[in-house]
Amino acid sequence: MEHTAQMSIRGDRWCLYVALMGVATSQWPEHYFGRAVQVPTVAERSQALTALGFVFTDGAEWEWEEYSATTGDDTSPVRLLASIRVRSWDGGAS
After folding, report:
1. What's the number of CA atoms in the CB half-sphere (13 Å) around residue 5?
2. pLDDT 10s per residue in the chain (94 long)?
3. Read out DSSP for 16-82?
4. I want to staple 77 with a disulfide (CB 3.0 to 4.6 A). Which of 8, 22, 69, 93 is the partner?
5. Distance in angstroms (rounded) separating the CA atoms of residues 82 and 89
């Protein structure tokens, strides 16, 4: 089963999480990286996903999206959201 993994800044650190349909967001697997100054590398993201029990789907690439911190206010800080398709590492349902 495929899922979407996303990464964004929460507080002062990058957080990688896997969105699981039908599961409360408080129970989604997540990993916090130790710094927000620089974006975690692809290798670091892959290692975090593996630790959570997921791997990238074949041919998947990170997609980046930006949005305003305050909807409709183009002077507010820009937030970044990264997404990629993943599956459980054993290929089974998560």
Report:
1. 29
2. 899 999 998 888 999 999 999 999 999 999 999 877 789 999 999 999 999 999 999 999 999 999 888 988 989 988 899 999 999 987 554 4
3. EEEE-TTS-GGGS-EEE-S-SSSPPPHHHHHHHHHHHTEEEPTT---EEEEEESSTT-TTSPEEEEE
4. 69
5. 20
